[in-house]
Amino acid sequence: MPYPTQPTASHFINGAYVEDTAGVEIPVIYPATGAQIAVVHEATPAIIEHAITSAKAAQKAWAAISGTERGRILRRAADMIRERNYDLSVLETYDTGKPMSETLYVDATSGADALEYFGGLAGSLTGEHIQLGEDWVYTRREALGLCVGIGAWNYPTQIACWKGAPALACGNAMIFKPSETTPLCALKVAEILHEAGLPAGLYNVIQGTGAVGAPLVTDPRVDKVSLTGSVPTGRKVYAAAAEGIKHVTMELGGKSPLIIFDDANLEDAVGGAILANFYSSGQVCSNGTRVFVQKGIKDAFLKRLQDRLNEAKIGNPMDEATNFGPMVSERQLSIVQSYIVRGEAEGARLVCGGKRIERDGYFLEPTVFADVTDDMTIAREEIFGPVMAVLDFDTEEEAITRANETEFGLSAGVFTSDLTRGHRVIAQMEAGSCFINSYNDAPVEAPFGGSKNSGVGRENSKAAIEHYSQMKSVYVRMGAVDAPF
Ligand code: NDP
Question: Active-site positions?
Answer without folding.
Answer: 251
